[in-house]
Amino acid sequence: MALSHPHRPSALKQQNKKHQTLGHRSKGSVAKSNKGRISVKTLSKKAKKELSREQRKHRSKQIRAFKKEAAILRKRGLGTANNPPFLATVVPLCPNINPRKVLKTLAACDKAATITTSSQGIMHISCPRFRQRFSFVVPPVNDLYAVLDSVKVSDTLMLLWPAEELGEAADLLLSSVLAQGLPAPVHIVAGLEDMSQKKKHQSRQNLIKDIELRFPGPAKLYSLERDQDALMILRQIGAQKQRPLYFRDSRPHILAENVEFIEEGSSGTLKIHGYIRGKSLSVNGLVHIPGWGEYQMSRIDSSPDPHPLLLHSRDSEANVMDGGTFMLAESDPALQETLTSTNEVDPMEGEQTWPTEEELAEAEQSISSKPRTKRVPKGTSDYQAAWILESEEEEEEDDDDESRSNMDDGFAPVDNVSQDGYECEDDNEEEYEMTVTDAEGVNYDDKIDYGAEIDALQKLKNAREDAMFPDEVDTPMDMPASIRFQKFRGLQSFRTSPWDPNENLPVDYSRIFQFENFRHTKKRVMNEEKQGALPGWYVVVHIADVPRHLYDNHVSSHSPLAVFGLLIHEQKMSVINVVIKSHSLGHLRPIKSKERLIFHIGYRRFANAPIFSEHSTGNKHKLFRYFQPGSTVVATMFAPITFPPASVMVFRERPDGAQDLVATGSLLSVDPKRIVTKRVVLSGHPFKINRKTAVVRYMFFNRDDVLWFKPVELRTKWGRRGHIKEPLGTHGHMKCQFDGQLKSQDTVLLNLYKRVFPKWTFDPYVARPPPLYTFRSSHDMEERTSGEENTGEQPCQKKAKTVKFHSARL
Q1: Exposure on the CB side of residue 697, measured as CA atoms within 13 A
Q2: What's the CA gap between 700 and 447, in Å, rounded?
């Protein structure tokens, strides 16, 4: 009987691969292997509150609904019966455009509208068709500050564009408005009535291109040729999306509808009538008037709305005369914010207490028990030795034999000195000659021509004058470098080396305020709800102790008056840091650090002389001696506290009073502990190179300076690092060790750092610039006249020459 054997596949049999789910197990196989067990990741998801897909979709839907409701409430918060009207600032971009003519067209577009005008020249339109009301303010065309103050509190900016090309004054005006913060814009073209249809279409297309280049979003250009166009503009103002201005929306603010002054001696009470916008206004807080300063309020009165939304003409008299003026709140001296902006400086703060008699006796006993040594010239008598003062360095090095052997100053050590300071003579002492012994041999100086080295150094300075490193400083030859740079220090690493921010602070730092946690304080102040007059109310604010001359200047200037309510701590002084970027319109030459500039930060404007530093993420920031065109820097100065975000504009004042926009930016922080370090780079040149060792000269000019700066690390322009090994001779030569082969054309550098602080140059009162268009046009006439006298060019060539003359003048 034959035996049966099982079938065995050969080695050539086809082997199919197992089913794989893209390199990982499927969900079904994972569930089978777990058999109901829950992994650690699933448990951690519940702890972290991670949402499922359906929960994420539901949360997104809730967020969209919340944002939609907030947008609807924001839109309904303006222009209705119980809210302040839409405030629009009308700004013509050419002096030939009459803004009052535009307002007359808007007022006549709806026969059912009610038109009223306040004593400050603000025109109010109550439009029953749209169930909204509008306010239009026209600041003086030639006053740049008046336009900026009006735009600060406006909801809409109406720009009246000319058909021709914009001038230099219009460019300055638009750049300033965009840098400060742009409300919802409405663009209107004027001067197209007398043009043909073809030129009219071409002018509109050119204006639309210019608007799209300057403003974000799609450009819509309106005209006022028909009444229907005026109605479209009113509908656009009431329906368009409002652009947020955070420094305005987070604070209460009022545009004055009527201003009264009750005189009380040299000062008096200023009564501001107007609508409260933004947040609630507390009578115990402080208010800020741009250009005037901070003041306290004595009371707030409620007044009937003189410009109500009249849906029916028969109700006009009843709505206006309904109710009367009554007091809402009166200030409480116990709760009212003070106007104190600085701390009182205590000159005795930080001083040590006077020691007791036991401590004095113990100190005298310890001094008398120590043997004193003094270095005096050879042959000095006891009386002469008593008049030689001991330096701190000599006292520290009394017990250091190595440092004493390196002192080649012609002084002889005397170890036997009596307690009263006189020298004890020693007959066995021998005189000695000043010699230098080092690794290079005896009498190293005899081999060097020191005069020739000085001449070579002067030629080297002249050769590299144009390509000198910005922070490089020549070592003085008439005084030791250890004295010249005694306030500087060396750092092993600029990024990681420690630096105490409270070390050696100036006296001005005792006058300012500092937050323990600025972010926490800002969050608490912004979220704090104030009790007071609500937004939308028409009130009369009584501002106390206002100087008379400020009110007289306001009456003569005919400019709008804006009032801002301050948040807590915003009247106090501190150190603020702002990030500014160079603006191409007026920044044509470098600005030196500590030069006087005019700052517009949020709702404030003041003059100051800041210091510039780099904008980096470390804890130490290098000082910039100059603010170069096209760069971005951080300006640090003493100024009142302002909670960010806030826009920043920087102007530079000309000798004739005109102001140029040189930089724009934003508020970075309020931090007195921000360390700004001034770097000084001492340079030397390799004299003899032996692989990684080199003899360097021209960095120092005496032996003591080499020993003083020996612990500081060296670097070269080609990336080598090293240290000072030992001095050679008495003229500043030194042997240095590096981490690699040194090139003969390389330069050895030594970095020293010192912290710098801003100066107290805060000036809250800034003079207004001269008239905008009049000043520019007069300069254009001067340039045009000079061009006709000097050259016989065509008008187009004169225009190009005028632009060049402006650049040279700036």
Answers
A1: 18
A2: 18
Dihedral over alpha carbons 52, 57, 58, 64 (to 10 degrees): 150
Which pLDDT does position 200 carry in this prediction? 85
Structure-model confidence comparison of residues 158 and 358, the more confident one:
158
Spatial separation of the C-alpha atoms in residues 751 and 473, rounded to whole Å: 10
Cα 777 to Cα 770: distance, rounded to the nearest angstrom: 12
What are the C-alpha distances in Å from 556 to residues 271, 295, 553? 18, 22, 5
- 483-488 — which CB contacts under 8 Å span 24+ positions? 485/680, 485/682, 485/752, 487/754, 488/680, 488/752, 488/753, 488/754
Pair of tokens at residue 347: 């000159």
Q: Hey, is 147 helix, strand or coil?
A: helix
For residue 260, is pLDDT > 80?
A: yes
**Cα–Cα distances in Å, from 270 out to 210, 499, 542, 543?**
43, 50, 6, 5
Predicted confidence at residue 487, as pLDDT, reads: 92
Helix (H) / strand (E) element for 161: namely strand 156-161
As a whole number of angstroms, the distance between CA 450 and CA 229 comes to: 87
Question: d(Cα 667, Cα 191) in Å, to the nearest integer?
Answer: 40
What tens digit of pLDDT does each residue of 176-207 get? 999 999 999 999 998 787 788 888 888 888 99
- The three-state secondary structure class of 114 is strand
Q: What pTM was computed for the model?
A: 0.74
CA distance 619 to 753: 14
**Tokens read off for 549:** 């001359």
Question: What pLDDT score was predicted for residue 70?
Answer: 85
pLDDT of residue 37: 75
Q: What's the pLDDT score for residue 806?
A: 32
Per-residue model confidence as pLDDT tens digits over 100-116? 999 999 998 888 889 99
> Does the pLDDT value for residue 474 go beyond 80?
yes
Cα 186 from Cα 310, distance rounded (Å)? 25
CB half-sphere exposure, 95, CA atoms < 13 A? 13
Note whether 706 and 438 are within 8 A (CB): no
Mean pLDDT of the chain: 81
CB atoms within 10 A of CB 52: 9
Least confident among 134-138, 423-427, 662-666: 423-427
Q: What is the CA radius of gyration of the chain?
A: 39
Tokens of 444: 């190293």
Closest CA to 563 of 336, 303, 222, 272: 272
Question: Would you call 548 exposed, middle or buried from its count of C-beta atoms within 10 A (0-12, 13-18, 19+)?
Answer: middle
Q: How many whole angstroms separate alpha carbon 290 and alpha carbon 145? A: 9
Other Cβ atoms less than 10 A from the Cβ of 599: the count is: 23
Rounded CA-CA distance 116/107 in Å is 10
Two tokens, residue 288: 């800020």
- What are the residues whose beta carbons fall under 8 Å from the beta carbon of 470, sequence distance 6 or more? 625
The predicted-structure confidence for 555-594, as pLDDT tens digits, reads as follows 988 899 999 999 999 999 999 999 999 998 888 888 889 9
**Structure tokens given for 475:** 């070592």
Angle CA 40–45–49, to nearest 5: 155
CB neighbour burial string for 125-162, b if at least 16 within 10 angstroms, e if fewer: bbbbebebbbbbbbbbbbbbbbbbbbbbbbbbbbbbbb
Higher pLDDT, 402 or 301: 301
Region 129-135 average pLDDT: 91
Residue type, 727: P
Decide: 321 and 562 in contact? Cβ < 8 Å. Answer: no
- Which residues, other chains included, contact 662 with Cβ-Cβ below 8 Å and sequence gap of 6+? 582, 583, 586, 587, 591, 597, 650, 651, 652
Query: Is residue 581 within 8 Å of 627, Cβ to Cβ?
Result: no
Residue 717: Cβ within 10 Å count: 13
C-alpha distance across the termini of the chain, in Å: 120
Q: How far apart are CA 256 and CA 540, in angstroms?
A: 10
Task: State the residue for tokens 């040590």.
Answer: 352
